[in-house]
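Worked example 2:
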Amino acid sequence: MTTPARSASSQTARDIIGPSPLIAIEDEPMPKLIVDSPLPQPLSRGLAFIQYRAENIRIVPVFGEGALQVSPRVGHVHVTVDDLPWHFVDASGETLIVVGLPAGEHKVLVELADPRHHVITAEMVSFFVPEKKKV
């Protein structure tokens, strides 16, 4: 077996994607949530494309009490738009998409949750949707 040559500045796969899901992690660090502002171009059409990432947790569609024992840790996100009394759940780990937003100020709360839907941490993004140009 050979070891691939690496420059001093290159990162390993583990550096980029995290630990292998095939081995349990002892004393996992607390999960982190990083949420970007919406991509600017789609906002002109009333669309919010919000990229996020989570560290020290895998975003997957696994729910319930038994999933708390999984290592590496698993979870999902809750998304609340403009303080509405309901939210939606996303377990894809992909860009969040909110459509049909009218012109004006908006905010989206993204909550990182465990498999029982208990919130671990949260981030809020605020943004402005411009008036649509009349043709």
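The first strand starts at residue 32 and ends at 35. The first helix runs from residue 13 to 17.
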